[in-house]
Amino acid sequence: MRGRPRKDPENEGERHTVQSVERTFDIMEALAEFKRPVTLSELSAKVDLNISTVHRLLSTLIERGYARQDHATGRYSVGNRLVALASGLDGGGDLQSAARPALQQLARVIGETANLSVRSGDQLVYIDQVQSDRLMRMFTRVGTSVPLYCTGSGKLFLAFGSEPAALERDLNRYLLSNRLESRTPATFTDPLALKKELQTIRERGYSFDNEEMEEGVICVAAPILDRAGQIVACLSISGPTSRLGAHGHTELMEVVETIKHAAYETANRLNS
Q1: Which architecture characterizes domain 9-77 according to CATH?
Q2: In the prediction, which pLDDT does 250 show?
Q3: What is the CATH number of domain 83-271?
Q4: What is the pLDDT of residues 90-134, one digit of tens each?
Q5: Which of 42, 110, 119, 161 could join 38 in a cystine, given CB atoms 3.0 to 4.6 angstroms apart?
């Protein structure tokens, strides 16, 4: 009597491992495709896996920094480590390569720290920086994530981060999912006031953080756009209020134009 073929435990283990890897990649790709924080059930439906499996794999991704969970809403989004890898943080990707000359020029010409940042879910992530050579200078560790609503670059993503028809809907979702906590006396904590600020930003095409994230620090930011005119990243400079705040209006607008031009040149290099 012929018995059934014996299973090879080693091959079975390999197949299980490969399947887990494939499912993990499916989840990472789905998080990136949503372009917004999502619920566990939404993600489960997207990748066609049961909720317990998705939750187990997500736990590992969160632990490694490839996914993140907003504990206030329970929603999931792309993690800072995945954003950094996608942007070529460790290997000099296209975005960093395109922006590096602008960062160096801004730090040299304006004399303040220059930053490159991208959006990750409802957070802003700094992916490159050139520091000022002044003794008193701003420093934010590359890979750090901060809220959108109280940063110059973050407000640009809120102002330009969606198609015009979807802006109001996406902003309302953001406001429902995120508390506008006061970081300083200048932080926008009223949703209506923030909406008015974002409308002003859309009209002028650049953004200020006037001590909204940290007292004594001012930031000026401009968007980097792709071929379709969508925001993909931001250039900004940050410095102490005692220096940037001391500029007259004409001089400050020269700083703004310098940053806008640097963002435009970066976009040209990125899209060429």
Answers
A1: Orthogonal Bundle (1.10)
A2: 83
A3: 3.30.450.40
A4: 444 588 889 999 999 999 999 999 999 998 878 898 999 998 887
A5: 42
